[in-house]
Amino acid sequence: MHEVRGQLLLYVRSKELAFFTFLLPLIMFVLLGSTYGDNRIDGLRGANFLEAGMLGYGVVSTAFAGLAIFMVIRRESGILKRVRATPLPGSAYIMAVLASTLVAFALSSACMIAIGRGLFAVPLPARWISLVLTLLLGALAFAALGLGMTVVVRSAEGASATVNAVDLPMAFISGSFFSPHSFPPFRRAIANVLPLTYFIRLTRDVMLHGHQVWTSWRDVAIVAAWGAFGAVVAFRRFRWEPAEG
Fold first, then answer.
1. Per-position DSSP letters for 126-164, written without gaps between them
2. Is the pTM of this model over 0.90?
3. Positions of the chain with pLDDT under 70
């Protein structure tokens, strides 16, 4: 718990990281919601449809991109190597980083729902327990993928560019900002292999259609399988020492 508090303090002090992972999804929600929030998308009000998609963008921004970028920067600057030389177990450090990421995403999600209710009159979710379980599943899965992504990125200078080259196209193709039903067939084919597609679909089923999380077991299984894949890669290939130099 002491390390979790330290990680949260570091997160707050890193203004650039906090802006791009915490505030940017909220700003995008306000901008897009004010643009087509009253339109109809797939038979649903635009703001309602958009809120669930922006929660998907939030989990990618916070749990995947944010985690991957700052872990690579810490590794390449030698911070992780020095942490391993302290009495703090490596597992405790990783768990503290994951816990602080979950807290940041939970606060971001609460702000997203509050903005949707306050600015765009989006009804509050009826299935709160299912929604919490859905968001927890997504945060854990994408955090595992974020740790796995650190294996691919070898330099601190290229961390932001490499990770954003993955998360931004994935957010667009998976339907965070628009309905994927209007996409051409080749783009829908790409969307069908992305984990964010199934997380957003699961979130919309829970928030917009009142489903329980366990009724969409196929989406749950696919998101969990992607998370397990990221965890295996991170467990086997995660490095504490700088990849360069």
1. S-HHHHHHHHHHHHHHHHHHHHHHHHH---STTHHHHHH
2. yes
3. 244-245
